[in-house]
Here is the input.
Amino acid sequence: MDAISLKQKPSTPLRHVLSSSQFDRPSLEYLCQLTNTIRRFDKSREGLAYLASLLSHKRAMLYFTQPSTRTFLSFHSACQIVGITASEIRDAATSSERKGESVEDSLRTFSSYVDLIIMRSPIAGLCDRIAALLDATPRPVPIINAGSGPDEHPTQALLDIYTLTRSLRTRGGIDGKTICMVGDLKRGRTVRSLSRLLANYQGVTLRFSSPPAFRIADDLRRDLAAAGVAFVETDEFLSAVAGADAVYMTRIQDEYDLEADARGTVDYRRYHLRAEHLPALREDCVIMHPLPRRDELDPEIDRDPRAKYWRQERNGMWVRVAVLTMLFGVDNRVELPEL
Ligand code: CP
Here is the structure.
């Protein structure tokens, strides 16, 4: 394999991955390029064997107490690719939390046995709290936020940026593009994390299309305004997606509905992308969705060349491999000249 010259490595090493706001433009460009480089190792048995040797001395705990398919499996696979042995808890009821142990004590216990904790939780801010707690212990293992309530999903946002970067590479990249996000924007953590990352690009316009009840939260609105990002909020659907360079569909996040809420009172059907809408989209529109989907994205659209969400999902595994190498400081070993 030929040597690939990577862009300048960010000067601040990754300690934890808690929020998309940790990433600036140079670190995003570095991550995208590192991911491209890593994918080249996938092309040969020797390349994969080399990747598997990078972190074969490390162990990780995947603590996922909120449902997940792709984030869990892509992180699990990413760990396998770089040789990390992964163990898992997917239900707090199977841990000593069931006996009354606090989540803080449970996570500190994991840190006694592993070198990395990848966690998904329904509780906003829990990852930050655990990272601060462990940083004050003699064994401060890194934390990766794999989704924290309606708050943040930073590695999803990283794979979204990677997918946009690749999909728009022949059109000048993300700078200057109009990205339309549709759906439950109030509680959709992927939208929050991705919007913050998009603030790193020049001249981006964000269109937020949602029912009035699901508009973006005040803190995101404030942050985007402070960063000088041009954005519009609308309850229109078709006029919002028309002309956008990328459309990012999301599902209704009704797992956060309280029982007292009248589930289903918001008519969400207006925000469904159906095959009949495709002619209204740009010919080169990038159609994305963090998945899982329900009815908001017609499976018929899967066959359209503009649909990038299955690729987006697979990109997630490689971006997570890159994140793991950065976290353990072995990313500089990815550009070996010969394999
Ligand atoms: N996109 C995403 O976070 O999917 P999962 O909930 O399946 O992990």
Remarks:
- The pocket of phosphoric acid mono(formamide)ester is lined by residues 68-72, 147, 156, 290-292 (CB under 6 Å).
